[in-house]
Amino acid sequence: MSTVLHLENIYVCRSRRNVVEDFTFTLERGDFVALIGANGSGKTTLLRMIMGFLRPASGTICLFGQPAVHFRQLRKRIGYVPQALSVDFKMPMSVRNVVSMGRFGLAGLGRRLCVEDNEAIDNAIRDVGIKHLRDRPIGHLSGGELQKIQLARAVCQTPDLLLLDEPTSNLDLGAQRECLDLICRLHHERQLTTLIVMHDIKALPIYCNRAVIIDDARKVFDGPFRNVFTETNLAHVYKQQASAILGELLTELSAGEMHT
Questions:
Q1: If we measure between CA atoms, which residue out of 19, 21, 16, 18 comes closest to residue 7?
Q2: Which strands form 66-67's sheet, in the order they lie side by side?
């Protein structure tokens, strides 16, 4: 296996406070890792730093075996799904227009899309199951449909690394499961390396091979999915609710194994 991402002793400071502290982490090619933590624990900050939107106060970042000095070039190999779709819903844009933004991000807004770009866009729309929506205005879509558009916009870049920030937030239970099943399928079919940030442990994708728990800006647990999720470990994030949450998660895991 080859290393896709390596963070070494990362510190990120805001308002004279460490929001990420002494964080070391490695992603190998093909990993599907869940990063778990309470709100404000530093999860989104880590994703934004990997994308180059934030700079660490200290520590080193390596992407695809290279020091992440020139973020602009390395970032083209990363697909990023933020918590909310950053599009003005009043603009007369179709689903395909929004998905196309992923390709413009690779080379800049000043060029026309080529045959390869259009193929990548159409393949992404097909793979996430929104072909029937391609010409629909974005202002007429449900939350689950909008999340699929975000995924299509990210994967049309044909990324090597996919980063997802709370992809099931603000979705109902049915849409959450559909979204997570889609992410799992894309991970395997496109042979991605995937890092998914989650707060709601009950909505975790059960096919992750590894989980990391971050608490109060520090990594506290990192290991195989089942090994990390113990009542003692979960108590760092979920306190007195840890036992009940663990029971629900184990039920989900067992159900998932029965269908594989």
A1: 21
A2: 17-28, 3-14, 58-63, 66-67
DSSP state string for 13-44 = EETTEEEEEEEEEEEETT-EEEEE--TTSSHH
Q: Are 124 and 152 in contact (CB under 8 A)?
A: yes
For residues 156 and 123, the answer to whether their CB atoms sit within 8 Å is yes
Task: Copy the structure tokens of residue 259.
Answer: 């269908």
Report residue 258's pLDDT band, with 50, 70 and 90 as the boundaries: very low
Burial (CB count within 10 angstroms: exposed 0-12, middle 13-18, buried 19+), residue 205: buried
User: Do the beta carbons of residue 195 and residue 30 sit within 8 Å?
Assistant: no
| pLDDT higher than threshold 80 for residue 187 | yes
Which residues pair with residue 33 across a beta bridge?
Answer: 195, 210
Strand order in the sheet with 193-198: 78-81, 161-165, 193-198, 32-36, 210-215, 218-224
- If you ran DSSP here, which 8-state letter would residue 229 be given? -
For residue 150, how many C-alpha atoms fall within 13 Å in the half-sphere facing its CB? 24
The mean pLDDT of the chain is 84
pLDDT given at position 247: 62
User: One-letter amino acid identity for 135?
Assistant: D
Q: Tell me what pLDDT residue 92 has.
A: 81
List pLDDT tens digits, range 134-152. Answer: 999 888 888 889 899 999 9
Query: Is residue 54 pLDDT above 80, yes or no?
Result: yes
Main-chain dihedrals φ then ψ at residue 162, nearest 5 degrees: -115, 125
Q: Which residues contact 56 (CB under 8 A, 6 or more apart)?
A: 10, 11, 12, 20, 49
